[in-house]
Amino acid sequence: MAEKTGTSSGQPIAVLNVHIVHRLPSQSPLLFAAKKQKNLSFETIAQALGREEVAVAALFYGQAKASEEDVKNLAKILDLPEDKLMETEMTGWPDRGRQMEMPPKEPLVYRLFEIVQNYGYAYKAVMNEKFGDGIMSAITFSTKVEREDDEKGTWCKITLRGKWLPYSRF
Amino acid sequence: MAEKTGTSSGQPIAVLNVHIVHRLPSQSPLLFAAKKQKNLSFETIAQALGREEVAVAALFYGQAKASEEDVKNLAKILDLPEDKLMETEMTGWPDRGRQMEMPPKEPLVYRLFEIVQNYGYAYKAVMNEKFGDGIMSAITFSTKVEREDDEKGTWCKITLRGKWLPYSRF
Amino acid sequence: MAEKTGTSSGQPIAVLNVHIVHRLPSQSPLLFAAKKQKNLSFETIAQALGREEVAVAALFYGQAKASEEDVKNLAKILDLPEDKLMETEMTGWPDRGRQMEMPPKEPLVYRLFEIVQNYGYAYKAVMNEKFGDGIMSAITFSTKVEREDDEKGTWCKITLRGKWLPYSRF
Amino acid sequence: MAEKTGTSSGQPIAVLNVHIVHRLPSQSPLLFAAKKQKNLSFETIAQALGREEVAVAALFYGQAKASEEDVKNLAKILDLPEDKLMETEMTGWPDRGRQMEMPPKEPLVYRLFEIVQNYGYAYKAVMNEKFGDGIMSAITFSTKVEREDDEKGTWCKITLRGKWLPYSRF
Amino acid sequence: MAEKTGTSSGQPIAVLNVHIVHRLPSQSPLLFAAKKQKNLSFETIAQALGREEVAVAALFYGQAKASEEDVKNLAKILDLPEDKLMETEMTGWPDRGRQMEMPPKEPLVYRLFEIVQNYGYAYKAVMNEKFGDGIMSAITFSTKVEREDDEKGTWCKITLRGKWLPYSRF
Amino acid sequence: MAEKTGTSSGQPIAVLNVHIVHRLPSQSPLLFAAKKQKNLSFETIAQALGREEVAVAALFYGQAKASEEDVKNLAKILDLPEDKLMETEMTGWPDRGRQMEMPPKEPLVYRLFEIVQNYGYAYKAVMNEKFGDGIMSAITFSTKVEREDDEKGTWCKITLRGKWLPYSRF
Amino acid sequence: MAEKTGTSSGQPIAVLNVHIVHRLPSQSPLLFAAKKQKNLSFETIAQALGREEVAVAALFYGQAKASEEDVKNLAKILDLPEDKLMETEMTGWPDRGRQMEMPPKEPLVYRLFEIVQNYGYAYKAVMNEKFGDGIMSAITFSTKVEREDDEKGTWCKITLRGKWLPYSRF
Amino acid sequence: MAEKTGTSSGQPIAVLNVHIVHRLPSQSPLLFAAKKQKNLSFETIAQALGREEVAVAALFYGQAKASEEDVKNLAKILDLPEDKLMETEMTGWPDRGRQMEMPPKEPLVYRLFEIVQNYGYAYKAVMNEKFGDGIMSAITFSTKVEREDDEKGTWCKITLRGKWLPYSRF
Amino acid sequence: MAEKTGTSSGQPIAVLNVHIVHRLPSQSPLLFAAKKQKNLSFETIAQALGREEVAVAALFYGQAKASEEDVKNLAKILDLPEDKLMETEMTGWPDRGRQMEMPPKEPLVYRLFEIVQNYGYAYKAVMNEKFGDGIMSAITFSTKVEREDDEKGTWCKITLRGKWLPYSRF
Amino acid sequence: MAEKTGTSSGQPIAVLNVHIVHRLPSQSPLLFAAKKQKNLSFETIAQALGREEVAVAALFYGQAKASEEDVKNLAKILDLPEDKLMETEMTGWPDRGRQMEMPPKEPLVYRLFEIVQNYGYAYKAVMNEKFGDGIMSAITFSTKVEREDDEKGTWCKITLRGKWLPYSRF
Q1: Active site located where (chains A, B, C, D, E, F, G, H, I, J) (predicted)?
Q2: Of A26, A36, A87, A86, nearest in space to A62 by CA
Q3: How far apart are CA I41 and CA I3, in angstroms?
Q4: Which of I32, B26, H128, B97 has its CA nearest to residue J122?
Q5: Residues of chain C neighbouring E96 (CB-CB closer than 8 A)
Q6: Is the dihedral of CA G77, G82, G88, G92 positive or negative?
Q7: Facing residue for G117 by CB, picked from J105, J114, J117
C-alpha cells in the first residue's frame, strides 16, 4: 500500500524516545518502529484509521484502546502481521497516565499544565455559571489539534470537547 | 446602569469561597462581593469589558492583569468607586498560579489536569509533526468555553489557542 | 417542628472540629452549630431533605450543592433564617476536595484509601471485563452507608453506584 | 477441562501490562500468561475457585493470599503444573499495595480515589453517628462489583463490606 | 480534691506548645491550661480516670474519645465546669492524626518512625509466620510506656498490643 | 543437622518477594533461598543463633549486622558454604531503611506507622514526664513480637525497649 | 547589670524574623524582643549562662530545654521577670524541628544540608570502619562554631561531637 | 606493595552495597572490589594518597574528583591497571549528590540530617553574629572524622571547616 | 526630595501582593507601602542607593541585607523615619528563600526554573570544561536585568555573574 | 580531520556519567563515546557546528534538536557514520527535562536553582516594571557561559537572553 510518507508540514515524523519505553505497553515499541521504518506521520495513519491524530498518537503511547478494526488497519498501514500485534497488550486494557510524571518537565506539556494551574478556578466559575454543578467529562470526550496561520504568525489551536455531567442528587 | 442580572443559563452566579481568600489578591473579595450584590454573571461582565468570560473570571481571581480601561469598566458595572479599586493590588502585577494546589482536588479542574496527564505525549507528538520543535505559548494565548447542545446531550467545548513558538537555534 | 433528637444508634451526633474550619465554606460552621444546638443526626436531617445521609453530611462539609429546596428544608429543620443561609457560600458552587489531605491521616478514612490502593488494579481488571474500556462515574453517582448486624458482629456496608462511562472513540 | 472462554459481556479479557511487572510477585506473569493463553475471564476463574471476582483479580496481582485449595484450583483451571505455581511467591505472604502509585494516574482508579477525597469526612460523620468511634475494617472485609442496567443506562455498583471495629478503651 | 501535683519522676509536667494549637480540637487548650494550672501529670490524671497514661495524653491532644465518665472525671480532677467541657469538641468524634507531620521532625517521635522504617519487613515476616495473613489491629489496641532501671541505665519500654485480624477470604 | 521444619503455628514460612530484591543487599536472596529450600521459620533460625526473631528477619533483609558467629551459625543451619556467605555484603555494613517506602503501603506495616502518627505526641508527653528531655534510643534497642491467646481471640504484642538518652547540656 | 552590648565581631545582633514566629513556642518572641532591646549577642548571653552559643540560640528558637538555672540567668541578663518567662512554654518540653522546612531554603543552612547529601555515605563508611556498626548520637551531643582567620581569609569551623552508640545485638 | 590490611579499629572494612550501584559512577564497583580484595581500610588508602579519609570515601562513591596523582596512587595501592581506571568516569566530572535520597533513611546519616534540621536556625544566628551576612562554603571546604575515648565512652567528632563567603553587595 | 515618579518604561510600578505578606519580614509591607505612595520604580530607588535594581527588589522582599547607608538612603527617598525602619527586621539577617514555593507557580519565574531544569547538565559540562571542578558562587555574585530592543522585538537579558569556586582538595 | 584536542583551559573534557544514561535518548552514549575517544571539548565541537557551547552540550544530553546540518557536522567531527547517528532518536523530537531531578542535588546546578529561589520575586518585580505583564521566553531564547579573570580571581558569567512575551488580552 502506498501511503504518503513524511508529514504534510515537512517536519520529521515523531519517533519513540528510548528512555520512556519502560513506562509503555509492549505494542508501543513495535508500532513506533514500524512508523519510523515506513516514515509515516500520525496524520497519515489517522486518515487510514478514520480517527483523530491525537487519538492515534495516544494509541501508540498506550493511552487509548484500539478497536479490532483499528488493529486491522494499523497492521495494514504499518505492514505488521496482525497476529503479532494481537500478542501485545493491544488486546488488554490501557493503563493510562503512567508514562507522564506530574508536574510535566517537558516544556510543551508544561504549558498545558500551566494553563490548568492558572485558569483552573476561572474555568470552573465560568462553567458553573454556564452549566451548573458538574464537570466536563474527560471520558465522553474528544480533542484535536489544529494549525492556523495568519499575518501574526502560526497558531496552535487545541479543542477539548466533553459531555457535561451534572452531579447526581442523592 | 441596568445590567442583566443572573446568568443566561438560569444557574446561580459564581461567588467567592471564603477558604481560598488568603490565596488571592486584595481586589478579589471586593470584586466578588460586588458581583454577588448585583447578581451579575461573568458573561454579563465580560460583555461590558469586551473580553472573554474566562479572562474576566481570571481577573477576579487575580490571575490576569486589568488594563486601566478594564478598571473603569469594572468600577462602572459593579458600582464600585474607581479609586477604591485602584488602591487594591489591581495596580500591581498578577502573582499567578498561587491559588491552585496541584494536583487539583476539585473534580472539575482535575478532569483538565487528567487530560494533560493522559494525552500529554500524544499532543506533543502531533504538535511536533505539525509545527516542528517548539511549544504552544500560554502567554500569547487565549481561551474560551462554549456550550453545545445536541441530541446526545450538553457538551462543553474549551478552546486553547496559542502562538506557536519554535525553539531558537543558538 | 419537633424532630427526633440524637441518633438512632444512641451514639452522640457529629459536630464540627474547629481545626478544619479554615478549609470549609462559610455555611459549614453555621450549619454544624445549629445541628449541635438542636442535637440532630444526619439521619434525621436526611429524612427531612429526602436525601441520603452521606449526601447531607457532604453538604455540611461543603462537598455537595444544596438545591433551593434543600436550603429551605435545612432552614426549617435547623431553625435558621433562610436568608442568613443564602448569604453564605451555599449560593455558590462547591469547591470540592480541599478539606482532605491525601493520604488521609484519619484512620477511618485511611481504610477507604487503603482499599483503593490495594484493590485498584483488581477493580480495574474486573470492571474492564464486565463493562469494557471506561470508568465508573463519580459524578453521576450515589453512595450510602448501611449497618448490618449478624452473629459475627456489626458490619458496615458502603455502596458506591455510578454510571458506566465508556471512552469515546475519536 | 472445558471452561467457558472469554467474558460474559463480550469484552476482551484483562491481561497483564508489561510495565508494571516489576512491581508484582513472580506468580503474576505466570498466572496472567495462562489466563491469556486459555482466554479465561476473572468471572470464570472466580466460579472455579468459589471466590469473588475482585478477590481473584487481587490474587493475580499478588494483593491477596491464595489458600492451598486455591492453588490447586488455579493449577487445574489454568493448566499449570501445581508445583511450578508453588515455586513462585504464592507460598509467601502478599506484600500489598506496592503496584499502585498514589494518587492513582489511571482514570478508573482515580475516580475511586476521588470518592474518598470528596466524601471522606462525610463518610466519617455518618459512620460515627451510626456505629460510634471506630473504623470499618479493610481486613475483615469483602468487596464485589456488580452491573446494573436500567433505562438510564449501565451502572456499576461496588459494595464494600467490613466489620465495624470500635476503638478499644485503654 | 487534693491530687498529687507534679510528676513522680520529679520532671516538670508536659504543657501545650502554642504552635500546634491550630491543629488541635477546642478542648485541648482548655484541658492543658487546667493541667498546667493545677500542675498535674498524666500519671495522676490517668489514675483518676482509670486509664493508661498514653490514652489520657492522646485524649488531651484530641486523638482519643472520652467517654461520658471520662468527661466527668476530667472535670472533677481539673476543676473545670463539666458543661464547659461539653461545649468543646469533646462531644464530637476525634479527627485523628492531623497534628503530626510525617515524617516526624521531633527526634523522640522520629525514633519510633525509624523503628517502623527499619524493621517493617522484619515485623511482617515474623508476624506472618506466627499468625498467618493479616494485621495487628491499631484500633482494638492498647499501648503503654514503662520505665525500667538497671545497672546499665534507664530504659524505656513501649508495649503495643493489638488484636490479630486475619484477612477475610472472599 | 535436623532442624524443625515449618513454623510452630502451622503457617507457611516467609519467603522473599522478588519485587523488592533490588532494594536488598546481595546476601538476602541467598539466605531466603536456603530458608525456603529447608523450610525453616525465623523462630527456628533465631533459636539456632540465640537471637530474637525480629533481629534475624532484619538480618535476612539486610537491616541488621551479623556477627562472625552469626555467619557461622547461619551457614550451618542453612547448609550454605561459609565463604560464599562471606563474599556477600554480610561482611559490609548494613545500609538500613532503603527497602521501605514511607508511608508504608503494606497494611500490616501501615498500622505501625499509624500508631506513631496517632500517638506520637502522646508518647512524647508521657515520656517527657517520666524521663525528662530526651529520646528512647532506636540503636541501644531491642524488640520482640509475642502471641497471646485469650477468650477474646488472638493478640499480637510488640515490645520496644530502648535506652533512655537525655539531651546533653552544652 | 552592665553586659557588653553588640557582638564582638562588630556585626549586628541576630533578631527574630516575624514570619517564622508561628512555628516557634511562646517564649521565643519574648526572649528575642529583650535581646534586641538590650542589644545582646548570643556570645554574651552564652557566657552568662555558661553554655555554648549554638545551644543558647537553639534555646531562643525553642529547640533546646532550659534548666531552671538557665531561666534564672536568662531573666537576669535580659531584664525579664522570671515568672513571666515561666508562664511561657519554657516550662514545657521542646517540640523540636518544626521551624525548619526541609530541604532548607536558606542558603546558609542549605550548605550544611548539602554536606550531608554529598558526604553522607562517605561519613558512614569511615565511621563504620572506625567505630563499627552504630551511629553518632545527636542527643548525647554538643556542637560549636568557631572563627579562624589566616592569610587565605576567614574560616568557619563547626564541630559536631556525639557519643558513639553501637547497635545492640538482640 | 605491602599495605596494612584491615582497619586499625579491628572493625571490618567498608564494602559496596549492591543496591546503590546503579546510582554510582563506573569506577565505584571497580574501586570497592579491589579494596575488598586487598582488605584495605579508607584510613590506609588515605595515607597513601595524602588525603583525608572522608575525601577518599567520597572519591570511592564518586562524590569527589581524583587528581591524576590520586589515580596513580589508587592504581598502585589497589593493584589496578592505571589505564583501566582511566577508562571509567574518573576522567569525568563528579555528578554529586545522586546516591543519597533525602531525607536519608540510613540512621547514621539521618542523625546528621537531624542536626541540620534542629540546629539550622541556631547555627545561622550564631554565624551571622560572628561573621556577618554570608555562608560557610561547602566547596572551599574540608571535613574529617575523629575518634575520642574518655571515661564516659567513645565519642565521634566531625569537623566541618569552610571558607566564610560574605554576600556581595551589588 | 523630588524623585522621578513612575517607571521609565511607562509601565505601572510593582507593589506588594497581600497574599505573600505572611512570608515576608516586617519591613516589606512598610517599604512597599511607601514605594506605592510615592510611585517610585525600583530603577529610581536603585539609582538613589547606588545598587542594581534586582538587588533593591530583593531587599524589599527581605532577600538581601541592607547596609546602614542603604537604610539611610531608603528612609530619605521613601520619606520614612529612619528609626521606624530600624525597628523592623532590617537590622536582622535575611532569612532567604522562604517566600518562594518550588517549583514556582508564577509563569515568569517558572521560565527561569525551566532553564535550570533543561540546561542544568549542559551548563555543568561546559563549566567543568572551562573552569574545572567547582561551582559558580551564588553568594559572591551579582545579577542584573537589561532590556534590548531590535527589529525582531523586545528582548530581556539576564546576567548572572559569580566567582568561580574550585573544590578544595582535602 | 585534525581538530584541537582537549580543552583550551587545560581541564579534562566532560564525559558521560553512566548512572544517568537511562534518562537520556539513544544518541547520548554514542555522541559522548566519540567525544571521549577523540578527546574533544564542547568548545571545539561548538565551533565546528557554529553554535554555542551550552547548545551543543544540551544536544549531547538530548535537550536540544539537531538540524540536519548539525548531524552532518557532528558525524564529521566525531568520525561517526551519519546514518548510524540518524538511526538514533536524533531524528525524533527532544523530550526535555527528564534527566534532571528537581531540586537538583548537584551543587553546581543547585546554585542556579537557588538563584531562582532567592531572586525569583525580585526578577519578576523588576521585569514587570521594565516590560509590563509577561514573561521572558525560554524558547525564543539563547544562553552562553563566559569566563572572566580579574585581580579578584576567576568569574563565571552566564547570560540568559529571551524574547519578551506580553500576555495577550482576550
Answers
A1: 111, 114, 137
A2: A26
A3: 10
A4: I32
A5: 105-107
A6: positive
A7: J105
Q: Read off the pTM.
A: 0.96
CB contact under 8 A, I122 and J43: no
Q: pLDDT by residue (tens digit) across C62-119?
A: 999 999 999 999 999 999 999 999 888 887 899 999 889 999 999 999 999 999 999 9
pLDDT band at C2 (very low <50, low <70, confident <90, very high): low
Name the nearest CA neighbour of F106 among B118, E134, H22, G90: E134
Chain centre distance of CA B49: 14
**What is the DSSP secondary structure assignment for residue H37, as one 8-state letter?**
H
Counted across chains A and C, CB pairs separated by less than 8 A come out at: 66
pLDDT (0 to 100) of residue I2: 60
Q: Collapsing DSSP states into helix, strand and coil, what is residue I11? A: coil
Q: Can you tell me the mean pLDDT for C125-133?
A: 97
Neighbours of D125 (CB within 10 A): 27
Sign of the CA dihedral running F115, F121, F122, F126: positive
**With 60 as the cut, is the pLDDT of residue A141 above it?**
yes
Residue F23 phi/psi, 5-degree rounding, is -105, 5
**Measured distance CA(C86)–CA(C75) in Å, rounded:** 10
Interface test with H, best of G23, G35, G45, G126 (most H CBs within 10 A): G126
Give B19 to chain C, closest Cα distance, Å.
6
Establish, for the pair of chains A and I, how many residue pairs have beta carbons separated by less than 8 Å. Answer: 10
Chains that touch E (3 or more CB pairs under 8 A): C, D, F, G, H
F155's CB contacts (< 8 A; 6+ apart) are E161, E162, E163, E164, F147, F148, F149
Q: Which of H128, H141, H168 has the CB atom closest to I168's CB atom?
A: H141
Identity of the amino acid at H77: I
pLDDT band at residue B2 using 50, 70 and 90 as cut-offs: low
The CA distance from G62 to the nearest CA of chain I, in Å, is: 17
SS3 (DSSP) at A148:
strand
Which of H154, A11, C147, G25 has the alpha carbon at shortest distance from J93?
Answer: A11
Domains recognised in chain F with CATH numbers? 18-87 (1.10.260.40), 107-166 (3.30.1160.10)
pLDDT tens-place string over residues A50-107: 999 999 999 999 999 999 999 999 999 999 999 999 888 887 899 999 888 999 999 9
J111 in active site: yes
Identify the CA nearest to H101 among candidates A59, B155, F96, E127.
F96
What one-character DSSP code corresponds to residue E23? G
Can you tell me the distance from the alpha carbon of B47 to that of B73, in angstroms, rounded to the nearest whole number?
10
Give me H54's grid cell: 572522608
Active site residue C168: no
The closest CB to that of C93, out of A94, A133, A165, belongs to: A133
User: Rounded to whole angstroms, how far apart are CA atoms B109 and I42?
Assistant: 37
Tell me how close the Cα of D152 comes to any Cα of chain A, in angstroms: 13
Residue H139 has its nearest CB partner, among I134, I143, I144, at I134
**Closest chain A residue to the Cα of D102, Cα to Cα:** A98
Q: What is the ipTM of this complex?
A: 0.96
3-state secondary structure (DSSP) of residue J25: coil
CB contact under 8 A, J58 and I112: no
> Which residues on chain D are in Cβ contact (under 8 Å) with E51?
169-170
Cα separation of D160 and C123, whole Å? 12
Cell 516544556 found at: A107
Return all residues near C106 (Cβ < 8 A) that are at least 6 apart. Answer: D120, D124, E95, E96, E97, E98
Q: Please name the amino acid found at residue F15.
A: V
Q: Is C98 within 8 Å of B106 when comparing Cβ atoms?
A: yes
What is the pLDDT, as a whole number, of residue G32?
96
